[in-house]
Automatic annotation (TrEMBL):
Name of the protein in question: Cobalt-precorrin-6A reductase
Organism of origin: Streptomyces thermogriseus
Source taxonomy: Bacteria, Bacillati, Actinomycetota, Actinomycetes, Kitasatosporales
Keyword Transferase assigned: no
A Pfam family hit: CbiJ
Pathway per the UniProt entry: Cofactor biosynthesis; adenosylcobalamin biosynthesis
Keywords: Cobalamin biosynthesis, Oxidoreductase
């Protein structure tokens, strides 16, 4: 929506962790900046008028670096965070603060685990040799990882019917997920509810101090109006 505005130059920065990212309007750069100091230097060099942090809710390092760089350069910062998921009637949620806490809880909940926390957090579960893991991720995982692991490479959105069939086909008895929010991957929660499965939900990391988030793109544009004119 920003790229479609006349006279607005938009550069999207991608971390580079996905080899085939979706199409992005405007200019695109890939890779890190070199921490908050590197990002601040880039903002000054390119005379940036505003920063939109639209990263994944669990990309805490990027968010903290963006906050520090924006503060150092006096650049307005808007954080976009889609609302988190909330349990509904019939849900059996166990909320934890980290993948490590999820791993500690798992042996008491089931033996066949559908793990949807992403390929980069597998180390927290690598010691659970007695459990079977079904991992779904966009990219192949890298060690360390659990010894009994089956990988499915797929990108959402997913359907409730498809997720239910997946859980049944792999005889899953517990689901682990991060509170990513949004609709693209929420179907697994509905499938777990339908099958009466326990769900371990990892809470989102907190935002940096004095920083608040808006829930959707229109709210971002409203925050940017003083800059866009």
């Amino acid at each position: 929506m920003l790229a479609a505005r006349e006279g607005v130059r938009v550069t999207s920065s991608l971390a580079g962790r996905v080899t085939r990212p979706g199409a992005v309007d405007g200019e695109v750069r890939v890779g890190g900046f070199g921490g908050a100091e590197g990002l601040a230097a880039w903002l000054r060099q390119h005379r940036v008028d505003a920063v939109v942090d639209a990263t994944h809710p669990f990309a805490a390092t990027i968010t903290h670096n963006a906050a520090r760089a924006a503060s150092a350069t006096g650049t307005p910062l808007v954080v976009l965070r889609r609302p988190g998921w909330r349990p509904g009637p019939g849900d059996r949620w166990h909320t934890v603060d980290s993948p490590a806490e999820a791993a500690e809880l798992l042996p008491r909940l089931g033996r066949r685990v559908f793990l949807t926390t992403g390929r980069l957090g597998l180390a927290a579960f690598a010691h659970l040799a007695d459990l079977h893991f079904l991992l779904r991720s966009v990219e192949p995982p890298e060690p360390p990882m659990p010894p009994d692991l089956h990988v499915v490479l797929a990108r959402g959105p997913f359907t409730e019917a498809g997720e239910t069939e997946l859980l049944r086909a792999h005889r899953i008895d517990v689901l682990v997920t991060k509170d990513s929010g949004g609709t693209a991957t929420a179907a697994k929660l509905f499938a777990a509810r339908r099958l009466g499965l326990p769900v371990v939900v990892v809470r989102r990391p907190p935002l940096p101090p004095r920083l608040t988030a808006v829930p959707d793109v229109p709210a971002v544009l409203e925050r940017l109006e003083p800059v866009l004119g």
